[in-house]
């Protein structure tokens, strides 16, 4: 691996290595508010296979992680209904960072500071391979989506809305 293609270890990659998960590294130049669409474009991935990690909270301010396709939005009403909450909304960036331990734009579902329930859009689990944040802005890791259920206990949900 060329030196410029290697990224120093993050809590997410340490977690994956500790659990024997094979993953590929995909560094790219981070752009503020570029999101999954930007990373998919510069790395040549289908945005549907780029999974964004969202830190949200229910009406009692209990944090949760939602994994969604890069080109879809979360229907918070549908999500709340499926998980038995009255409401769900995205956390403010500083709150999300406190829960996850990651900077917004570099949030990974692996190696978070707090243990949180994880929900994954069901169609993600049907993909042969996904890429998601590796714990640093400008850094994605590629892996088998079945790892999400096995290591994180991710529960499937159906709450995707087409991104407009």
Number of helices: 5
Distance between the termini: 38 Å
Annotation, overall tally of beta strands: 10
In percent, how helical is the residue content? 10-25%
**How much of the residues is beta strand, in percent?**
25-35%
User: What does the average pLDDT come to?
Assistant: 94
> Largest sheet at a glance?
8 strands, mixed
Would you tell me the structural class of the helices and strands? Answer: alpha/beta
- Multimeric organization: single chain
- Rg over C-alpha atoms, rounded to the nearest angstrom: 15 Å
Unreliable segments of 5+ consecutive residues:
none
Elements, N to C (H/E)? HEHEEEHEHEEEHEE
Question: What does the model show?
Answer:
The chain is α/β, with parallel strands linked by helices and about 160 residues long. It contains five helices and ten strands. Strands 1, 2, 3, 5, 6, 7, 8 and 9 form an eight-stranded mixed β-sheet that branches. The protein has a two-stranded antiparallel sheet with strand order 4-10. A hairpin with a 4-residue loop joins strand 2 and strand 3. The relative contact order is 0.24.
